[in-house]
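debug: dumping io for the single-chain case to check the tokenizer round-trip. Nothing else runs in this session.
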Amino acid sequence: MSGLLPDDQIAILREQGFVVARQFANPEQVAALRALAERHLRDHVAPIEYEADLRYPGAPQSRNAEGGLTVRRLLNAYARDPLFAQWATDPRIGQWLKRYFNETPVLSTVHHNCVMTKHPAYGSLTGWHQDIRYWSFSDTDLVSCWLALGPETRANGGLSFIPGSHAAAFTPDQFDDKKFFREDVPQNADWIARAVCPELQAGDVVFFHCRTLHAAQGNSSDRVKLSVVHTYHPESCHPLPGTRSSSQAGVPLAGA
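debug: decoded output
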């Protein structure tokens, strides 16, 4: 997908639910963001979500257990540091998403808006899911922007996606009670067999739809994997009043 023009990338996103934009961020920007993320990780700068908080497969049972302070996410990236805010509102992201939405994109400060980490030890598995499962908006056409701050492969917990799943009409019984796509259901097997894990390098971005099924394995490398992820919706799409999605104001990317 390297070298494609934005309109071609957008066509792929519409068709398969995700697209890789190679070297979307420049090396200097990536190095600065990674150094900042590593410092906040080392110093446990709040707010933080720990692996033990979610207890996905492979995570410690509690914060008091061995590995209990393994970080899963550095939360609230936009307000965490001006450097993260600068990336979240980068004009290149705004212009790309404006071409996709055909209107001004708005950054959600509630959903994603974080640095995702995947530690070699105690970094948990994440089952197949759609991000929209716990979000509440007037429409379901939201797009996330995932920036790799280092190499990402299946072996170190890189994201896998199921092409076309964003456009499918799944039934409730295809998901478990936590809204993960069930791997024990025969009609899901064909979907899961289609999964792909695009290999990323530092500076690569994945734009993916909020209905696209995705998952991640554990990290079997010797280095923490770091990524920055933000979610955007068109200006005409609104978080539903009284829901978590409306608990913080969004940020229009006015320069788009």
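debug: round-trip ok. Residues 68 and 102 are 44 Å apart (CA to CA).
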